[in-house]
Amino acid sequence: MSAGLQLIIAFAVFLSLLGLGMQVPFAIAVPAVVYLFMQNGFDAFNGLGLVSWGSMDSFTLTAIPLFILLAEILQKSGLSFRIYRGLSVLVARIPGGLLQTNIAGCAVFAAISGSSIATAASIGSVALPQLGQRKYDRRLSAGSLAAGGTLGILFPPSIAMIVYGTFSETSVAKLFMAGVIPGLILTAMFMAYIAVYTTMRPSAAPTEILTRSVAGIMGALVDVLPFAILIAFILGSIYSGLATPTEAAAIGCLFGITISVIWGDLTWPNFVAAMHRTVEVVGNILFIVYAAFLFSYAISYAGVGDDVTAFVVGLHLSKVEFFIAVFVLYTVLGCLVESLGMIVITVPLLYPVLVQYGVDPIWFGVMLVMFIELGQISPPIGINLFVIQSIWDGKLSEVVMGTVPFHLIMLVLLFMLAIWPEIALFLPTRMG
Question: What contacts 21, CB < 8 A, 6 or more positions away?
């Protein structure tokens, strides 16, 4: 049996297991073991012990549980309500009212949590009841929260970028910085769309009657300031080179606990609940990473990476044609495979090809995260769609339709990044 046919069988097993509802880590690990066995029987398993140790013995991966713990502490202490309340005073005067607060709130929480699910759930649970009471357009409300939640993996700290950096041996700090400007641009584009849409259709966003007293503005600043300081510390320490992402996450957790006690409702039971939830989430993520290392080992054992590189290079595709093929690949995968699964399955295969084409791995990391963002709001398995649908009384179809304009906006930003890579590379090239 040829190596190509064996790989096709492995991928068929992977997709079949996903279709049958098997959890992603097992759906990756089982085909990896099957593929190894097809290569050389039980002798191919001799290196699994070393792979198992090496995959988890990573300083970079230690940032993941710390950033997730930070997000869970802020969520359990109810501080997402304070973010939303403060921003509603500061930005709700912009056309679109509280819909603008959805995007701004997601951007702020994303820059703390690094998790799309945590961002969408935290801001969505606070925003949707208020949006419903005020008769905001249902589709646009749900779409803005589902799309805004995707900012969690573009703004640093990004769990997806940490995993990508681990597999591609790329600087996580530079990947974090590469996401800042695209994240700000995407946030501005989302808010601009909402402003234009609600100006053309005033019924979509009722006029908010808010007092603009000095006391009200000061109160809003007090709500937002702790998070601004936390974000500035995390990003500033990483950008200046004073701390690694892991060190910044550790100190960020301590600062997060402090502001959660002072400004939030962080009781001991809430803290224990945050710890339990962190263990569950981290266990799932690291299990996916471990399974992916098994799959990567199977691919390297068979020499498939070299074969794929030789095959793609032999097609003599131009760089533009290659990117179109990658775009189609990730568009299809985004509708079928969970975000981390997309990274861990494709990066070991694509990375050698990227090197041959002279593609900057930091720039490609941002493009990959954008593709993942699209996948998170694309049916049938877009996780953010289900997060938003689960916390309101609407239909999933309304959430899906509400995200369509935001899909198009993301595609525009992808096009901009393809034409002007400097958008992503400006900050990383200026790091020490």
Answer: none
How far lies 183's CA from each of 204, 223, 383, 394, in Å? 26, 23, 20, 28
Structure-block tokens of residue 21:
């509802």
Q: What is the pLDDT of residues 22-55, one digit of tens each?
A: 776 777 788 878 777 777 777 777 777 777 776 6
DSSP string, 303-369: THHHHHHHHHHHTT--HHHHHHHHHHHHHHHHTTS-HHHHHHHHHHHHHHHHHHTT--HHHHHHHHH
* Section 346-367 average pLDDT: 83
Q: Is the pLDDT of residue 193 over 90?
A: yes
Nearest to 174, CA basis, from 241, 112, 248:
241
- CA 246 and chain centroid, separation: 18
**Structure tokens given for 203:** 């019924």
Q: How many CB atoms lie within 10 A of CB 315?
A: 9
pLDDT value of residue 306? 57
298/348 Cα distance (integer angstroms): 11
Residues 6+ apart with CB under 8 A from 380: 335, 336
- 208: tokens are 């908010």
CB 190 within 8 Å of CB 406: yes
φ, ψ at 138 (rounded to 5°): -65, -45
Phi, psi of 365 (to 5 degrees): -60, -40
Q: What's the pTM?
A: 0.75
Rounded to whole angstroms, the Cα distance separating 334 from 370 reads: 11
Residue 1 has pLDDT above 60, yes or no: no
Q: 194-220, pLDDT tens digit by residue?
A: 999 988 888 877 766 655 677 777 877
Structure confidence at residue 416 (pLDDT): 92
Of the candidates 69, 19, 84, the one whose C-alpha atom is nearest the C-alpha of residue 274 is 69
Confidence of residue 423 (pLDDT cuts 50, 70, 90): very high
Domain ranges of the chain: 59-266+303-430
Q: Which residues contact 16 (CB under 8 A, 6 or more apart)?
A: none
